Amino acid sequence: MRLARDEGSFADAAFDTVYLGGGTPSLAPPEELGRLLAGARTLLGARPDAWITLEANPEQVTTAACAAWRDLGIAAVSLGVQSFDEADLAFLGRGHSPEQGADAARTALAAGFPWVSLDLIYGLPGQSEEAWQRNLETAAALAPHHLSCYQLTIHDGTPFGFRAARGELAEMPEPAQARLFSLTRKSLSRLGFPAYEVSNFARAPELRSRHNRKYWDHTPYLGIGLGAHSFAWDARGARRWWNERKIRPWTAKVAAAQRPLAGEETLDIAALRLEALLLGLRTAEGIDLDRFRERYGLDLAAANEALLARLTAEDLAERAGSRLRLTPRGLAVADGLAARFTVA
To answer: How many other CB atoms are there within 10 angstroms of residue 325's CB atom?
Structure first.
């Protein structure tokens, strides 16, 4: 569970969004979710009208479950559909079929949730542009409010990472990844889901994720549970901390009435600037240069005048008044472009 508030430190205002995710909360009985949300309100200061999002697997989405979630005040459901292709789902180790994924979306929408989002993954080994196009068209035809399309990334220490280390799996070549990225943006725009961030698409501006976009703007958030991260501004500056990822050390610390912390860090101004730059460049709105200067004490345009001229000439970035945005070509390599900026 993660909670976030619009501005300031944790002492300034109540949490106005709550996100139940980072695992499979849809497996929990409704009464357990109810106790969790009651604790968030009474112990952590979540507002009674907080916008609550629940991550759910298609297998757990039933008419009865949706009714129970709605009774708990849950307003948004993020469905881990991942794909509408049988082979893709088998590769990803998912427990549902393409039909179950589509049925889950229909059931959640029929339940009247104000916001239903589908998660999809692309860039699987051997995935063709035609197959991914079919996925996008199937998802859009279900008419959810929001779509998130993530590119498969292989991380060390994960099942995919172990397979890659044994030579059994490799990431899709970068040129093919770039083509699928471009196809995603163009197709979803045509289908009525314009991009507002590298991986996120909404049918209208008011349907953009209320909770997740706070992470992109250094809004304070509090993470509860295994491996959860938190961020806050306070008298000591900007801090990030994270919990134990494994169940045994986490439960041992909780049983001993200790915070289950695994580590923490203080972010200096250069780190904050780099994060703000990286996250801002990934969005369709880009970076408000005036606000960046006021908040982080750096005239980003003046400090990177020559770089911005090159990026503009290469059709990777554009300026519109005080707004700096990446072009579609630039968004495809946003993370790499951010590393080229001077922020010290």
So the answer is: 17
CA-based end-to-end distance of the chain: 34
How many residues are present in the chain?
A: 344
Residues 254-304 pLDDT 10s = 999 999 999 999 999 999 999 999 999 999 999 999 999 999 999 999 999
pTM above 0.90, yes or no: yes
Task: Tell me the domain boundaries of the chain.
Answer: 2-204, 225-267, 283-337
**Nearest-CA neighbor of 76 among 96, 47, 56?**
56
Of 341, 246, 245, 268, nearest in space to 299 by CA: 341
The dihedral through the CA atoms of 179, 185, 187, 188 has a sign that is positive
Q: Which two tokens stand for residue 154?
A: 């292989």
Tokens of 15: 């949490």
Q: Which residues of 271-290 are buried (b: 16+ CB within 10 A; e: fewer)?
A: ebbbbbbbbbbbbbebbebe
For residue 303, with 0-12 CB atoms within 10 Å meaning exposed, 13-18 middle and 19 or more buried, which class applies? middle
The secondary structure of 58-81 as a DSSP string is GGG--HHHHHHHHHTTEEEEEEEE
Helices (H), the chain: 30-42, 63-71, 86-92, 98-110, 129-141, 159-165, 174-190, 212-215, 247-255, 269-281, 289-296, 300-303, 305-313, 328-331, 334-338
* CA 37/CA 311 separation, integer angstroms: 47
Fold entry, domain 2-204? TIM Barrel (3.20.20)
Helices 269-281 and 289-296: crossing angle in degrees, nearest 10, is 160
pLDDT in tens, 95-151: 999 999 999 999 999 999 999 999 999 999 889 999 999 999 999 999 999 999 999
Beta carbons of 43 and 49 less than 8 angstroms apart: no
* CB atoms near residue 9 (< 10 Å): 12
